[in-house]
Structure formats: structure tokens, C-alpha cells
Amino acid sequence: MRRETQNVLLILLGGALVKIAVNGDFLRYVKPAQQPWIVAGGAVMVVLGVVAIVHDVLAARSKVTVDAVPEEHDHAHDDGHAHSARPAWLLLVPVLAVFLVAPPALGADSVIRTEARVPSSAAAASAAAFPPLPMGNVIPLPVNEFVSRAGWDTAGTLNGRTVSLTGFVVHTDGGTLLARLVISCCAADAFPVTVRLRGGEADHLASDAWIQVTGQVVPGTATKDNSYTPDFTPASVTPVPTPKDPYEY
Amino acid sequence: MDTLPGDDTITEPGRRNRRFRISSVEVLCAILLVAILGQGWLQQLFDVPALRTGSTVFVAVCVQALPFLVLGVLISGAIAAFVPARVLEKVLPKRAGAAVGVAGLAGVALPGCECASVPVARRLMGQGVAPAAALTFLLAAPAVNPVVLVATAVAFPGKPEMVLARFAGSLATAMVMGWLWARWGKLEWITERALRRLPEVAGGQRWRVFAETARTDLVEAGGFLVLGALISSALNVLVPAKWFGVLGDQIVLGVLVMAVLAVVLALCSEADAFVAASLTALPLLPKLVFLVVGPAVDVKLFALQAGTFGRSFAVRFAPVTLVVAVGCAVVAGLLVGVA
Same structural domain for residues A112 and A97? Predict the structure, then answer.
């Protein structure tokens, strides 16, 4: 591969990183705290590419005007390392993936593929980790926390309380689930937390449709055997737009 | 400097003599044009659930790892341009065995993932550091740095022995590999390109050498990182998640399966502790193996090593690392008492 092509690829890839970091699409792939890293990494790539291009152009120009260019002694190395640049073509794959395919955030397919789990922090925690829910009629809770409390909180802080959860619809053999994916670094390490919706209001909704439900947990339904998927009796099921940040942390 | 301008591919030898050659620039333009015209078709192609999940994971791994690779090539470039070989020679002990120890502890100082340490280790070799020491650094840096240890402590609250065992197991893996290399390793396994000494850099050229080294390393290693991301995202979709669940009480099988999973999943060393911790059915020892093996050898790292140090190096180094890492993890786990 020619040096010019490598530089163009670097600028394209760096540009792709900066683009998704700035327009917020990066939240589909990694946790929010990565943003400055992605911007900096992408910017450095672009700068390295641009610096190399500018240097080459200046060098070529001075070559035309001046006969001997002392600095160019190292340009003579043409001996058999062309093979090393061939994998550089692979840099084009993420560029095309980001600009043209723009893969969506993980959804129902990923939930079906992976077994639901309870976050480790919940498994290790004692009752002290679950303070009583705040006062109020409807308490919004992350699905992650709801599942942790349903499975591990011996004091029953959820029982009889009305909460609201936001997640997407997943249809399985066992019924309709409301699911959310939890990531700790990037989407490669995502694992789902799930809630089984009783009553059937969500059955007609398409997979991956985002909904907000309010209702109550059915006490004692989150067990090891069902991968800690508590039953939930929804009082209302409302479709909501896909959130900008689709994961929980 | 090794890969410098003028390295036109020799893929189109027949065209070389004609007046108009198709170079990679034209190929790139053609690919981009076709891809843009075929965007609708492309998106339709990726509308299959499994492919969609796979492509998301692929982009996620790239987006996650590329900034760390950039950090690594910047450090690599800085070593090439600003740290003369004689300084490194003065700082490191003469004997390879002792240098391995220093290199292992030096790994504590580079907070980053495994992707960052590959170009740095390669540049250290290029500056005349003993390969055994550079390889120890390569294995130690992603596993024993403070960021990773803190992440492990957060993921396993109330179990400080897990952090200690991970530190001990990973450091032991790195040093054992270094000593093994010092004893039995052969220089000819490493591609000559990675070992080539850089000429002494003149004062006025430092920034240019810095930028050029970083750029070259980034282009080379970046391609292999993408390859590793492709493999790991494919495996991520293909490996059945059931593997995680059924291993509750079979400790030996658990250890082996977690070692294999660490290799194929290729998680970032800052995230793997959370994944391990969330597998509630497993005992601690297999989880520890997962944490020690992951930063030392995985498919992404294998692709990077093969590209940087050569294939004949990687096919020898990676399997031995896997065995040593599993052994060190088990021993560390038993000694510290996580089992």
C-alpha cells in the first residue's frame, strides 16, 4: 500500500472516531466515560495523517526545486517491507462500518444469545446495600437495580411499591420480557438484565421496541433457576423513543 | 527507520511498466465509491440479527481499543525519538534475568490495555532492550497497572484477596515468560523488522522521527487490531453463552473453559473483572484464571503480536503464555487462598 493511501486511511478512521464521539453515537458501543479518549485518539490519528501528507508534499516540492535533498536519505529504504503494509487495508473495515453500516446498539438478539445475570455488586452485597426506596407514588428505577433488589434484597424493599422501568421488548418462549443491557466498558462485555411482564399488554409490541412500564414486582419470583428474572405486574405500558444512551452501567 | 515512504505494494507487478499504474490510492477510491453507492444494499445485508449484533460488537471493540493503541504508538514514537538507546542500557541491569524483574515492575507504570503495550514493547526491543525484558513488559503492563487493579477491587467488593491474587498471578506470568525466553528463546523467531535498531536521532529531527514512528506503528498495528476485533466479535456471537452457566461445581473444567473464554472473548483488561464477577455461579478460582489469562493472551493480542513480531514468534509465544498463565493463576489462587 502506498504511503498516501495509509495517510488517507488514518484520516478517515480518525475522522470516524471523532464523528461518533461528537454526535453521541459512541454511546451505542462504549460507556460515556470513554468520550475524551475517543476524541483524543481520533484527533491524534488525523494529525499524524495530515502531518505526514504535509511533510511529503513539502519534501516533493523541495525535491523539484533543489536537486539534492539531504533529509531524504531514509526514503531509500524500499527493501522488502512492502508486505508489512498489506494488513493496513483492514483499517478500512471500521471506517466503512461506522460511516455506512452504523451498527445499532445491542438489543433483543443479544439478550436471547446471552443468559441474564445479576450484577456482581448485588451478589456480593448485604441488605445494607439496599436502602429503602425514596417516598413517592411511582419510583423510577434502573432495571439493573430493580433486578438486584428483586433477587437479593432479603428485606423486601420493593414489595408493594410502584416503580417505573424503561427498557426494550424481548419475546422468548417463556413470555415477553423487558430487558436492558449492562456494560462495564464496551458492548463486547454487555450482559442483560430482564424482567418478565405479566398481563400481556406488551405481547403485541415488536422486539426491540422501547417501552416504559409502571407497576409492581411479584415477590419471590427472581430465583437462580430463572437467571434472576423477576415477574412484574404492569399497570401501564407506554412506548417511548429509543434513549440516546441505551445501556446501564 | 523501517517502513518509510516509497513502499508501493507489489501486488500489481504486471502493471508496473505501463505508464499509468493502478496504485492503492485508486483502489481505495474505487472501494469507497462502490461502498457509498451500495450503502443501501450493505445496510440490508447487515439487517440479520446475528450480523447486526456482531457488527456492533466489532465497532465497539475497535472504538474501545483504538485510543489505547494510539496512546501506545505515541509512547513508542517518544521512545524512538527522545530516549537514546544508551540511556535504556544504563537504566536496565546488564543480565537479562535481572532486567526481566525490572521490566515486570515497570509494567505497573503504564496504565492501559494490552493494545498499548505491544508497540511499546516492540520499540523497546528496537532500542536495544533485551527481548526477554521487553516481552515481560508486554505481558505485565496491561495486567498489573493501577487502573486494572482498582477495577478488579471494585468488581469484587469485599474480596481484596482477588486483587492480590491477580497481581501476583499476572506478574508471575510475565516474569516466568521473560525467564523462559532468556533461557530458550531464539532471536530468529522474531521478525528482523521488529528488531532493527534505529539510527541515533539528530537533535533537529526528533519531532519528525516521533511523528513518523508513531504513524508507521499505528498503520501496522491498527490493521492487526482490526483483524483481532473481527475474530473476537465473530466468536462473541458464535460461542454459546451456556458455557458460562453450567460450570458451577466442576473446578477443573471451569478453569479450562474460563481460560479458553478469556482467549476468544478478548475483553479489555479494564473490563474483564466485571464480566468475571457477574458469573455468579462460578467459584473464584476459574474467575481468577480468566483475569490472568485475558490480558496475557487473546485473539486480538495474538493478531497484534503476529503482525508486530512475526508469525513464527506468535505461534510459539502465545500457546506457552496460555499454559504459563493458567499455571501461575492457579498457583497464585491457591497461595493467596481464593480457592
Answer: no
Kindly report, residue by residue over B30-68, the tens digit of the pLDDT.
Answer: 888 888 888 888 888 888 888 888 899 899 988 988 888
Find chain A residues with C-beta within 8 A of B229's C-beta: 94
Is A92 in Cβ contact with B53 (below 8 Å)?
A: no
pLDDT bin (cut points 50, 70, 90) of residue B330 is very high
Question: Grid cell 492501559 — which residue?
Answer: B112
Cα dist from B194 to A172, B136, B209, B228, whole Å: 52, 16, 16, 20
Domain with A116 in it: 108-248
Neighbour tally for B46: CB within 10 Å: 18
Query: Are A53 and A144 found together in one domain?
Result: no
Give the burial string for B78-96 (b: 16+ CB within 10 Å, else e).
bbbbeeebeeeeeebeeeb
Report the gap between the CA of B94 and the closest CA in chain A (Å). 31
Torsion of CA B119, B120, B122, B123, to 10 degrees: 110
Select from B46, B226, B278 the Cβ nearest to the Cβ of A93: B226
Same domain, A121 and A225: yes
Taking CB atoms and an 8 Å limit, are A189 and B2 in contact across chains?
A: no
By DSSP bridging, strand A191-197 and strand A175-182 are antiparallel
The pTM score is 0.81
Q: Is B268–A41 a contact, with Cβ atoms under 8 angstroms apart?
A: no
Contact call for residues A195 and A232 (beta carbons, < 8 A): yes
Predicted confidence at residue B18, as pLDDT, reads 47
d(CA A22, CA B295): 30
Count up the domains in chain A and report the number: 2
Q: Three cell numbers at B150? A: 482498582
**pLDDT, tens digit, 9 for 90 and up, residues B151-180:** 888 778 778 899 999 999 999 999 999 999
Share of chain A above pLDDT 90, in %: 40
Query: Across the interface, do B8 and A82 touch by the CB < 8 Å criterion?
Result: yes
